[in-house]
Amino acid sequence: MLQCTAVTDVPLSDALVALATMGGGSDDPSRDLSLDHFLLCELGEHDSRTEHAALLRPSETPSRPALWFFWTGAGPDRVHRIGPVPWCPAVLRLLDTGSVLQCSFFDRHTASHSWGVTDPLGDLLADGSVSDEEPKGRTQP
Ligand SMILES: [Zn+2]
Ligand SMILES: [Zn+2]
User: Fold this and answer.
1) Residues lining ligand 2 (ion), CB within 5 A?
2) What average pLDDT does this structure show over 23-49?
3) Is residue 15 within 8 Å of 34, Cβ to Cβ?
4) Rounded mean pLDDT of 88-93?
5) Origin, by domain of life (predicted)?
6) What is the SS3 assignment for 126?
7) Ligand lying closest to the C-alpha of residue 117
8) 129 within a domain of the structure (yes/no)
9) Which of 13, 18, 63, 95 is the most buried (most CB within 10 A)?
């Protein structure tokens, strides 16, 4: 299942209020959001009635609810909400390595668990198919 491609800008004032209300983290919540002000829906492809969802900030301890940003629609029609949501309890046991993957989505999310969602761009980057480097060995005329 491919990842949903929805992107939205973060209403910073709302996000800062939510971060401040949640407590913890750095003393200056605006620093937590300084990396970028856009969020990408992390869910697998879903229908338009389902809310898009992006992790705003993980909780301090893995067992605590994390802060998620949910939205539907785009542009002026966008409706959003921010709130702490418990993690999805699903785990995937990898029989060959014995390791356990915890779903990185929120509880009762739609579509696939996180391990069933592929990010096409991320895969390209991992393959090295997308690179800013100059090709080597091209100095010959
Ligand atoms: Zn989405
Ligand atoms: Zn899940």
Assistant:
1) 88, 90, 103, 105, 113
2) 72
3) no
4) 94
5) Bacteria
6) helix
7) 2
8) no
9) 18
